[in-house]
């Protein structure tokens, strides 16, 4: 007979040990090591089960196009691929206070106004608190039902009683199941709750929206299996210092994963931003040196982003390099290339400050050329024309390389009124700086006899 020994195994990665530990030594997850009885010796044979539905060739399987039901929020539907698919499980994650509950409450109200019944289950707030927020954001409707439950069985009972066309659970980490041991939020509980809700969505053909908490490093809390079980994983991003919010799809079985939705948090709730081109550019009409516009790509969207630079003489032996919204390492590389290849002298003796407008963060190398031109403009005190936009990657040899979606960026620049575009065709950084000086004008200095009073 097979001898059974006690073994502990991680439910995340499968790592096993002979004694219990609180943290997995392989995946570094806490609370995922559980006790199992692992048989040793001769393994048991798996019995054959009679097949009820025979396998068919793939060419004989009938195809039916999955229909998307719009939620009424265009930016959210854009990310989902046109709307919510019946029977789909959507997981929405984000930092605390970014606006996940506000967005889903607005989605619930829009779907309820379209004639479908919605059940909004809040495991974090009471019904009165949700009602107060819904009144502030004008998300009230008779077909929107509220429930404050933390037990999975009670939630399933609410679903039987209401029979909704859309189920929203906020959040999956705060719901517990009596059939699983441990507290709510532990990997076993999250796995059991998510599996039950997804099974409900597939059996009743009802879409389910789940809110997921994130850890301090930005990953979704709970087992990684949660992201594999659901059909769509969306991430809600934003900064508390700014009202701008982005939503993007990390996984989508029914649509693309390169779309980005843009929202703005207001006092009356969350509002869509269908054309965010004016959010990342300054409204100043006075010509100022050290500014240049680049065409950034967020998903499939081409957005104009203004980059500002300030260059002042340093009073310390080690000049400062302060950046906001761009990569500090790339700025340091661009400064070195400008001084060596672009023939912009004196940068090693000046403090350089680089920032983006609107709090947007640029991580793609296509912004290199605009950063270089902004620094060169600030150093030479030359104003770049408002009709010039630049994008391109800069190499250590000083050449400007081509970037992805160059035609789309150029078309967007032309649509916004930029008549001149600096891209990879300009050749080198030195050529870009020279053309910038020819197409621009120096800043008119303030005369010393003018009396300026504040």
From TrEMBL:
Q: Where is this motif: RadA KNRFG motif?
A: 251-255
According to the entry, every stretch annotated as the RecA family profile domain falls at 65-214
InterPro entries xref list: AAA+_ATPase (IPR003593), DNA_repair_RadA (IPR004504), Lon_proteolytic (IPR008269), P-loop_NTPase (IPR027417), RecA_ATP-bd (IPR020588), Ribosomal_Su5_D2-typ_SF (IPR020568), Ribsml_uS5_D2-typ_fold_subgr (IPR014721), Rubredoxin_2 (IPR041166)
TM region positions: none
Q: Which domain of life is it from?
A: Bacteria
- Functional summary from the UniProt entry: DNA-dependent ATPase involved in processing of recombination intermediates, plays a role in repairing DNA breaks. Stimulates the branch migration of RecA-mediated strand transfer reactions, allowing the 3' invading strand to extend heteroduplex DNA faster. Binds ssDNA in the presence of ADP but not other nucleotides, has ATPase activity that is stimulated by ssDNA and various branched DNA structures, but inhibited by SSB. Does not have RecA's homology-searching function. Plays a role in repairing double-strand DNA breaks, probably involving stabilizing or processing branched DNA or blocked replication forks.
Q: What is this protein called?
A: DNA repair protein RadA
Q: What is the lineage of its organism?
A: Bacteria, Bacillati, Actinomycetota, Actinomycetes, Micrococcales
